[in-house]
Amino acid sequence: MAIKDFTENGKNCQETKIDKITLINVIFGAIFTVLEFAFKYFKLLLLILIVFIVIYVLYKSYCSPVFYSKELSDVGFDHLPKGKDRSFHVIRAQKSRRFGSKLPPPYPNGWFSLVESRDLKVGGVVAVNALGLNLCVYRGEDGTARVVDAYCPHLGANLAVGGNVYGNCIECPFHLWKFGENGQCVSIPDTNTVPKGISIKTHPSMEIDGSVWIWYDAEGRPPLWTVDESNETKNWGYRGRNEFYVNAHIQEIPENGADVAHLNAVHSASLLTDVGHKYQFLKNIIGHHNWSAEWSKGEADHLAQIKIAHQYIIMKYDVFPIDVTAHQIGPAHVRLYFSCPLGPMIIIQSVTPVTPLLQKVVHRVYTPNYNAILGAALVIMEAYQFTRDVAIWNNKRYVSSPAYVKSDKNIRAFRTWFSQFYSETSLSMRDAMQSPYDW
Ligand code: FES
Ligand SMILES: [Fe+2]
């Protein structure tokens, strides 16, 4: 019996060996056939590849806007250990961070983007928590976007979670009360006459530059300025957006435009590779960005302007000059006008305080049709540059009295300008942090 088993096992071993050899022969045979085919039809295959790439680029540029996003823990934590405990290290770094003292109020007065227009269809309802508010944004059948407080005055249900739009009214999901355009309750089931004085708070809103904006004012004043839709966003094509969550005070983000010195410190390394940054002797071959900028106050109080000149230098030659004019409109809205040899482009930046020290930053890119490919590329290129700022913001603290040097003169001017958006009853950072929720 033992001899029989041995013989059978030996046979099995032999069969397995033959199977492996056959398999290897088949694999090598297939590889050689593919290589032979590739060499024989090299030009044809190359052509097919190029056609596919061109179709893909055209499709992404014209038909499928680019979307690039980074989560809060994605940027600025490369220095922490990798591995299975990484999330623990990130949380520890975030918790032990000191945000600085004398931080300005977290919610300046101004217009803030809540929802992108494309995410709010007619009859659509979106819940937004921002600026210390719980909001319901909906679009009535007249196409107008409206912003109301989320909680129903009856028993407090959240209108944005399960609520429905009827005409231009929003209906509460709990007992189906309806609230009209001005926030007044207009209908209660099984009740013929709606008692007077029942209403939900409405907020001033506008829809421009691809987004629905709310007017936030600590003093309860009506909007101190309005903004017209830009011609560019009206007439050009949308090429995509990038989106970031940044752990910093809102003021730090627009201050970046006035911080001229950081431009060549942070944004000089080539987007193509960081190698040139690490090995200086390669800098001239790979190329690097060169920036100069000037920040100034605008004609109206709530406006400011930054003029930026960009060069991409390879061997002392500027191979890609770009002029950028950034129009800062209030605390949280920027239009960046790009002008380069391949045509114009615009980026709309919005900054929304989700919590006192958490900002949602979105950049939307628009270009004329002939310039769509560059526009799609700009979504990514700008995101790469912005990521470098986010890595700093996610780890820095706010310094209320910096050690200013001459090149920081714009920062001082910027802070004075920005202080107009804080008012007497602006919620202090301390109060906002101590009671983020109304328990
Ligand atoms: S809670 Fe909204 S209708 Fe009752
Ligand atoms: Fe920057």
UniProtKB/TrEMBL annotation:
Coiled coil: none annotated. Its EC number is 1.14.19.21. GO terms for biological process: cholesterol metabolic process. PROSITE patterns: RIESKE. One of its GO terms (molecular function) is metal ion binding. The keyword NAD does not apply. The chain crosses the membrane at residues 21-39, 45-62. GO terms for cellular component: cytoplasm; membrane. It catalyses: cholesterol + NADPH + O2 + H(+) = 7-dehydrocholesterol + NADP(+) + 2 H2O; cholesterol + NADH + O2 + H(+) = 7-dehydrocholesterol + NAD(+) + 2 H2O. Residues 112-214 form the Rieske domain. It is an enzyme of class 1 (oxidoreductase). Pfam families: KshA_C, Rieske. Pathway: Hormone biosynthesis; Steroid hormone biosynthesis; dafachronic acid biosynthesis. Its main location: membrane. Its cofactor is Fe cation. The keyword Cytoplasm does not apply. PANTHER family: CHOLESTEROL 7-DESATURASE NVD, IRON-SULFUR DOMAIN CONTAINING PROTEIN. Belongs to the cholesterol 7-desaturase family. This is cholesterol 7-desaturase. The lineage of its organism: Eukaryota, Metazoa, Ecdysozoa, Arthropoda, Hexapoda.
